[in-house]
Amino acid sequence: MIRPGIFRRSPHAFERTVPEILTLSSLPLFPLQTVLFPGGLLPLRVFEVRYLDMVRRCQSADAPFGVVALKRGSEVRQAGAPPEAFHTIGTLATIQSLDASQSGRLMVECRGEQRFEVIRTEMLKNGLWMSDVRRLDDDLAVPVPPDLTFVGQALARVLESLQARQGYGTPAPVSEPMRLDDCGWLANRWCELLPIPLELKQRLMQLDNPLVRLELVGDILHRTGIAG
Fold first, then answer.
1. What is the pLDDT of residues 13-28, one digit of tens each?
2. Among the CATH numbers 2.40.30.10, 1.10.4060.10, 3.40.50.1260, 3.90.226.10, which is that of 146-224?
3. Does the domain spanning 23-135 belong to CATH 2.30.130.40?
4. What's the mean per-residue pLDDT of the chain?
5. Cα–Cα nearest to 154, from 186, 192, 200
6. What phi, psi does 17 have (nearest 5°)?
7. Do 146-224 and 23-135 fall under one CATH topology?
8. What is the mean pLDDT of residues 176-187?
9. pTM assigned to the model
10. CA distance 204 to 189
11. Signed CA dihedral, 14, 15, 16, 20: sign only
12. How far apart are CA 207 and CA 188, in angstroms?
């Protein structure tokens, strides 16, 4: 059982205008073999007891949980296996929809919000990781420079192709609204789509400068022949 106070927050934890460090106390973590980017969509099929309970509590409290990328270990707990090791920079996830129609399973659609840094962790008896985290600043709104406009044009083509294959009228493969002229949003969407190693995605997500992140994405697109 998750201890009381799981969603305790500092009084100003979600006030963007407060200048001091923003924190979340007792945040549950979901270590995964993926990197969640701010503004990204993440579908989850949840069936382990530790996460079923966590997701239900998060939905009931309208509270986030933290997604962190695994460095060692499996998403599914195995008897006798060592504890998971994960990166200390992750992304808050909020539940957008939840389907409990399957017995013993939850189909969850999450959205990435603000990045955070793990300050302290504790594993509960049921294997759930709890943490205290420090919220990191959102990306600044930086316009895409002229020499990188091809990155947005290429993404627009890819998204149109994906939607055509899925059928028009189906939900977009990325979160709305589209911000093809914003460095951070554009870089993040490409990072989700590109077949690059997990460690590289993690390093890109951790970058504080959205323009640098987009420049690196543009270099990957050029070197792989995807665009440029």
1. 333 333 345 568 889 9
2. 1.10.4060.10
3. yes
4. 86
5. 186
6. -85, -10
7. no
8. 92
9. 0.84
10. 12
11. negative
12. 11
